[in-house]
Design goal:
Elements: H1 2-5, H2 9-42, E1 56-58, E2 65-67, E3 69-74, E4 81-87, H3 96-107, E5 112-115, H4 123-131, E6 134-137, H5 145-148, E7 158-160, E8 165-167, E9 173-182, E10 185-191, E11 212-215, H6 218-230, H7 234-253, H8 263-286, H9 288-296
Helix pairs in contact: 3-4, 4-6
Length: 297
């Protein structure tokens, strides 16, 4: 405004009026943002979508996308989608057992072998699958800093289930000491009293002792890892099975993908897309001639 005062009176007045309009617009915007802030504080998950009240920020690689999480269960023989679900839960971590149970029900099966990517890895979800008679193959998400720092990782410690103890790379026994509870889950703690004098300590831990933690249902996770070790090609099968329908559907739906708003409408839209996909897939597998022949019969 000081700069405008040094201009010609007419020019200065025009610039001053424009600046006042911008300032008034910013103040109005700040007031509206305060209202949004109050609404955001009331939201239980700390999110507020102005376009679609049910949409949420999804956990994706790179930038986050506000939208929905589409879950599908695809059979490996014909790549038909046997079950699907649309949620606004940002991650896949809590979706495995419910989707597998629904898929088994749709197929009339009491048990199944399910393949999923590492985004579904959850101790509790894998336990639920195990108790339901479902064999899961899911890669574990590695979060340990020890291996990255050049030290021994968890896999270097061998568990002896008969003695209920671990054997470290130096041959020492890590014996059971006590059990703690975290997030309603029981964990057993193991360590050795000989860590301080161990010649491999620098390669093991910067702490006084190396402690191992074992979940009370850790044997379930061991079985999951054993299946992956025996059948390493399962992840290739998973990619060529479930990613194919997703790619086809996204191609059909276009760059905008979902066109409707609110969770109920999005679920309806997705059901129609999947119905169309399955119908076209069946027509390709069975052929139209066979379908027409069956209809006439």
């Amino acid at each position: 405004m000081d700069s405008a005062d040094r201009q010609e009176p007419e020019v200065a007045q025009l610039r001053t009026d424009r600046l006042k309009e911008k300032i008034a617009a910013r103040k109005e915007q700040m007031q509206s943002m305060k209202v949004v802030e109050q609404e955001l504080a009331k939201a239980p998950d700390g999110q507020l979508s102005m376009t679609d009240p049910d949409a949420r920020s999804m956990k994706t690689r790179g930038t986050g996308i506000v939208g929905y999480n589409v879950q599908t269960a695809v059979e490996t023989r014909h790549h038909l989608i046997v079950e699907h679900e649309v949620t606004n839960i940002p991650t896949d971590r809590s979706q495995l057992s419910s989707m597998v149970t629904k898929a088994c029900s749709a197929l009339g099966m009491d048990s199944a072998l399910v393949l999923a990517d590492r985004g579904y890895y959850s101790s509790e979800e894998l336990r639920k699958c195990h108790e339901a008679g479902i064999a899961a193959v899911v890669p574990e998400s590695t979060t340990s800093n020890a291996t990255a720092d050049g030290r021994f990782g968890r896999d270097d410690f061998i568990y002896d289930r008969y003695r209920d103890e671990y054997r470290c790379p130096a041959g020492e026994r890590l014996i059971y000491h006590f059990t703690t509870e975290e997030h309603s889950m029981a964990f057993h703690r193991y360590w050795s009293s000989n860590c301080k004098t161990c010649p491999l300590k620098e390669k093991c831990t910067p702490s006084d002792v190396r402690r191992m933690t074992r979940w009370e249902h850790e044997h379930v996770l061991d079985e999951v890892q054993a299946r992956l070790d025996r059948f390493p090609e399962t992840m290739r099968i998973r990619r060529s099975t479930v990613e194919h329908p997703f790619g086809t559907l996204k191609l059909w739906m276009g760059s905008a993908h979902i066109l409707t708003r609110t969770l109920q409408r999005v679920r309806t839209e997705m059901s129609l897309h999947i119905l169309a996909y399955n119908m076209k897939r069946v027509m390709r597998i069975v052929t139209m001639k066979s379908l027409l022949r069956a209809m006439r019969a």
